[in-house]
Amino acid sequence: MPLSWLREFVDIELSNEQLADALMMRGLEVRGLERWGADWSTFVVGELLEVGPHPRADRLQLTKVRISDKETLSVVCGAKNIAPGQRVPVALVGSVMPDGRLIERAEKMGV
Predict the structure, then answer these.
(1) N or C: more exposed end of the chain, with fewer CB within 10 A?
(2) What is the C-alpha to C-alpha distance for residues 99 and 91, in angstroms, rounded to an integer?
(3) Domain 40-91 has CATH 2.40.50.140
(4) Angle at 95 between CA 33 and CA 82, to 5 degrees
(5) Do residues 91 and 77 lie in contact, with contact meaning Cβ atoms separated by under 8 Å?
(6) pLDDT per position as a tens digit, 51-91
(7) In the chain, which residues fall in CATH 2.40.50.140?
């Protein structure tokens, strides 16, 4: 039974894990907890300030992305359909992509 359905009918002030433990302690079977989606806390919306070709890779772009009033990042990406002024999703260092890849600070083709 999805917890979202249960929460429509019952006011539950426990985390999913706490609720599962409480149900099991009362003799009910909990087959497991499934998480849908990803942890989005390390993903932000950024504004493209600059977009230019990568000096060593035809298929990559070098960008400057403002992610807050105080922080601008240099990001290498493969998108060709981007332009300054656009808002774009940014996976910060430490983000885990839905396919399991970890976003790390790295040098790409010398940049």
Answers:
(1) N
(2) 13
(3) yes
(4) 125
(5) no
(6) 999 888 889 999 999 999 999 999 999 999 999 999 999 99
(7) 40-91
